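Practice set, problem 2.
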Amino acid sequence: MRTLNSNARSVLLSVLLCIAVAAPAAPPQGVEGVAHVVLVSIDGLRPDMALRANMPNLRALMAAGAFTFWARTTALSVTLPSHTSMLTGFAPAKHGIDWNRDLPLSEPVYPLRPTVLELATRAGLSTAMAAGKSKFAVLNKPGTITHVFVPAAANSSVDDDTVAAHAVEMIGLYKPALLFVHFPGVDLAGHEKGWGSIEQLAAVEHVDAQLGRVLAALDAAGIRAVTAIIVSADHGGAGRTHGPDDARSRHIPWVLAGPGVKRGFDLTQIEEREVRTEDTAATVGYLLGLNTGKLDGNPVLEAFAR
């Protein structure tokens, strides 16, 4: 049997090293049993309003999963920057969206960091977004989301029923691996009538019914058992507004239910764990096995039974 001399061995080792370096890393595996993720944001839902209101669908998700009513949104505490952080996993200073309305620009501007919708689309998954405010068009960079509904008229919104109808249709027709649903009604009621008002309380109860329509659509499509559901918000509010570094604006609910998730688990039992809105994107990536890279947020691993 011939043996390799030292020069030949060196060449062979160099070739093997190059192959090892060039070989792509194995993709993350995701959470066992999860084939779909639905991320629902209830715009302006201050946590205590969810507690005051009759929200049977949200409470059922809490009983079936893990939750905290002490999660925190971005310091800006306004819709577009906070939602961009929710979907990219980065603070506004890094994703670059620090305004909160449709801008009359000759060329559209998109986040500097990819959303989880974009990452999922790149990975070959079907994605969808049903958003109730026109400014969410900033998250719809061409080619990054498979199916999209956003109001067409600048600086406009639609009601929660319309958003739910589009989300239900998307689930029935496409069964997307990742669906983002944005309900605007609670925020609109807060700006018009005030946070904590009777009118806003009615809006909270109404949006829970629309959440129920989305959950029923998952049942009808036969995918509920393999779907992880996250329900959160972008900010709270006080008076008729919301803004930076106000605890009434910064605290948000965060609920996760689905395969592999602890049931009825209050995340505040873990003293050192404060859930942040950037953690939502990281958790979606973890659920679907997306290669998110290093984010400002981290997956809420404490929610899972491991």
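Problem 2, part (b): a different protein.
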Amino acid sequence: MPLTYDQALDFLFPRTTTIKFGLATTRALLGSLGDPHHVVPTIHVGGTNGKGSVCTLIAAALGAAGWRVGLYTSPHLVSFRERIRVDGVPVTEEAVAMWTERLRPLILERRATFFEATTAIAFADFAARGVEIAVAEVGLGGRLDSTNVVRPLVSAVTKIERDHMKYLGDTLEKIAAEKAGIAKPGAPFVIGEREPELVEVLRRAAHRAVARMDSSARAEVRVMPADYEWAGPLALAGPHQRRNAGVAHGILMALPPTWRPDSESLARGFAEAWIPGRLDRRGKWLFDVAHNPDGIRSLVTALESLRPPRPIHGLISILGDKEWPDMLVQLDRAIDRGVLTVAPTAASRGWDAAWLRRWLGDASRPPARASWTLVPDFQAALREVQRDAGTVLVTGSFHTVGDVMGELGL
């Protein structure tokens, strides 16, 4: 019997526990489907933070210009189908089941990871739905990420921060070099990073990446001005989104003239683009997927600007491999009460409750302005955080935001 959608997810999701770098398996999966990633012109966007917002803004502007646009992002919040969209419409359950069924023997043979399989499904769906141009977000790193099989019209790196250091390196320079590995011959490489030292690392690494593919070529590097921010109407909230929109604008202007949206389409797309979980206000609930120190800094700055009703109670769950003490110290500046918990979908990767309990009781940690409570049971924490709150901020990871949205039926 053919797989159902639920059976397809049951087959795919156990493969999320494996992270495997390299492009051979992804190429094999796509090759078995006729190499759909070579049929669909693609914009390829990497970076530590901001890449999801930048991809959404690019897709919105291209859609406003009349193109049929595919958008591949990760992770999802509530439904797997969010990852693969065409003109904003998620991939159907039937398509996920069909492509998984077709790829299943090769997935098993190659021991493909969740992300390798999902990348193949995304481009197969784009080709099947007649996508004219796609926007693909890098999953992890860049050089060896599954999405790096594409031959992009433009590639870009938004920003470099400390994250995934276990896999990408323990310095910003090493992380930058990995992310610049998406640069390709004949395609402009746009740098959104502002720090001059990291810009130079990205520039050099892009030249090396291009030379590996074509020894006679040099990367066509375009560096966004450090002070450039989008000044027009913008639906996405928060000061940091002005910079993200500026980077998206730079990427769109680097496209070949055939694909480049006019100023009216660009402005309309940016004014209408919206992405769930980014300073996403729903009544008294405020969702933000900030999941590393830089993301939390942007969130805190945005809260100071937005001034949501107080008291602000934070429901927070962070993955165990993140720099969560720094993140909590920053959040302490902006909220009145923090409830720490463990998001159900991140239970195997979440922080350690016993460790948190010891940390909260450590007299040597920075003095807290807010009151902090550890409630490991997610349902109990969800009830607790709402008591007497003017605003309930949900943050710390995509899992946290997605799990709460799911519980609230959003």
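Answer key, part (b): The two ends are 33 Å apart (CA to CA). The chain has two domains: 5-272, 280-408.
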